[in-house]
Amino acid sequence: MPVKILSVDDELDLELLLTQYFRRKIRKGEYEFHFAHNGLEALTMLLKEKDFDIILSDINMPEMDGLSLLTKINEMQNPALKCIMVSAYGDMGNIRQAMNNGAFDFATKPIDLDDLSLTIEKAIEQINYIKAMQKEHIQLESIKGDLAVAREIQQAILPRIFPPFPENAHQLDIAAMMNSAKDVGGDFYDFFRIDDEHIGFVIADVSGKGVPAAIFMAVCRTLIRATGIRGVNSAECISYSNNLLVEESVNSMFVTVFYGIYNLKTGEINYTNAGHNPPYVLKADGSLQKLPFSNNVIAGIVEGYHYTEETFTLEHGDMLLLYTDGVTEAIDNECNEYGEERLEALLKSTPLSSCQQMIDLVKADVKVFAEDAEQSDDITLLAIKRL
Fold this sequence. Notes:
Blueprint: E1 3-8, H1 13-21, H2 23-27, E2 31-36, H3 39-48, E3 54-58, H4 66-75, E4 82-88, H5 92-100, E5 105-109, H6 113-157, E6 172-179, E7 187-193, E8 198-206, H7 210-228, H8 234-248, E9 255-263, E10 268-274, E11 280-282, E12 288-290, E13 310-313, E14 319-323, H9 325-328, H10 339-348, H11 355-370, E15 379-386
Parallel strand pairs: 1-2, 1-3, 3-4, 4-5
Antiparallel strand pairs: 6-15, 7-8, 8-9, 9-10, 10-13, 11-12, 11-14, 14-15
Helix pairs in contact: 3-4, 7-8
């Protein structure tokens, strides 16, 4: 596209002078000149055509002078529109006022066209830079909007209605939350009914952050849910999901997973831990137990790996608390980590309450510890209590 230049001057000779001097650039389609003979005529043209790049304006003109025109142009708030003011050499007062009012540069009469050409080229450089920044800003705003929608979609696919199984509310209390470090995250939790006696639940942490992790997170959740709902045991569910994730993995992405199957009648939990943080069991008598570390590898790396499973039983009043490393690895302003010791001390000193109260307590304690430090990782918590 040619650079559109509007020359505003009541001296008609200037029109011929400019078109003759810049004839080559005009023929090549680099410059496109338009002409007005006073500020009012120029303003009318500017209102009709919004794509002018440079205004070359005399200061002293009838009907509307150049300084008044400059004021009107400033009201348009178009940083990519540059004004070059022209006046007699002795009119430095008006020239200085024009520069103070936002003119890009000035030229004095009689006009040195070689110098004017350099001034126009300098203005074009600034215009191109500003337009590039405006284009990037529009693109960033578009991306920001897309991320906001993606965040809503990601939150929507996670269970958010509590209690999730009203018909079993007298047997089981469940609560969960996920707070991503960026617009979208790689952590997720889920729970679903397998049959009348069994509830599947999962917490996981995908490698990386942002959009790639969020996409991989959605794939992982879908695979585990679709496999688990068939009623297979936890080891078979994770083994099968792992093989599919290895096939679909891009850039060697992986996921740590804790998947459990809860028996509503007995309180027994059959679980497989694929490299995830061992959860805590808050006993009804006030003691705290940490489940043993698993020798299973993280999911999405080794194809054909056979995962092992374990079992334990939640007694009446016991609570299982699962979390991602965004909790224990949360940092304060001095880069100190929240740590497992602080989490365990909090759990030991807290009377057993509802799952939601426990999650709110941990979340609040992490926030107090981190103060105003930027959240470095996704924070996810899931609690299950046998009533």
